[in-house]
Amino acid sequence: MLNVTELRAGTVFEEGKEVFQVLTYEHIKMGRGSGTIKVKVRNLKTGSNVEKTFQTGARVQDVQIERKKAQFLYSDREEFHFMDTTDYSQFSLKAEKLGEEGKFLKEGMEVTLDFYHYEPVGAEIPRSLDYKITDCGPGEKGNSATNVFKHATLENGLTVRVPLFCKVGDKVKIDTRTGEYVERAK
After folding, report:
1. Which of 80, 101, 124 is the last residue before a domain boundary?
2. Which of 89, 116, 119, 126 is 20 to 30 A from 150 (CA-CA)?
3. Which of the four pLDDT bands, split at 50, 70 and 90, describes residue 171?
4. What is the domain-level CATH number for residue 107?
5. CA angle, corner 183, sides to 159 and 11, nearest 5?
6. Residues 8 and 52 in one domain
7. Are residues 99 and 111 in the same domain?
8. Rounded distance, CA 158 to CA 174, Å?
9. Residue range 43-80, pLDDT digits in tens
């Protein structure tokens, strides 16, 4: 059993017959009385995000997740297909289980997959990734005194806002948690 005050981002626990992974954790203490723990979690079986509230001192069932390195191969409309890098076995993960991380995947990239009872339930991708700009509007000279952005399309089809100095062919670093431009990639 795991005390709810020990829940952190990435922790996996079981409640009832459902398995959840913690996305965000917040401890709230107001005046007298016990505090409450508010967590945003993803249901690993359905892929849906839910907010849960616990009283301080409550306990949940700890779950062991097996993590494996895998290479992303391709995606169709419903599933993302991966290959285990150690034994070359292939498996797929439903798009709703992968969530927002799916839009950042590039063919051939390595990810860490989470398995629960030998079934893939989620993926962990790096916090920032480099992408090449394939299409964007022209930058205007002289508009650099403030943070002015324009829309750009990346090699994976994702559209992000980038500074005016970025042009087609540039590599940019994107934060995979927020989907925002971080910096120009080296």
Report:
1. 124
2. 126
3. very high
4. 2.40.50.140
5. 80
6. yes
7. yes
8. 10
9. 887 778 889 888 888 888 888 888 889 999 998 878 89
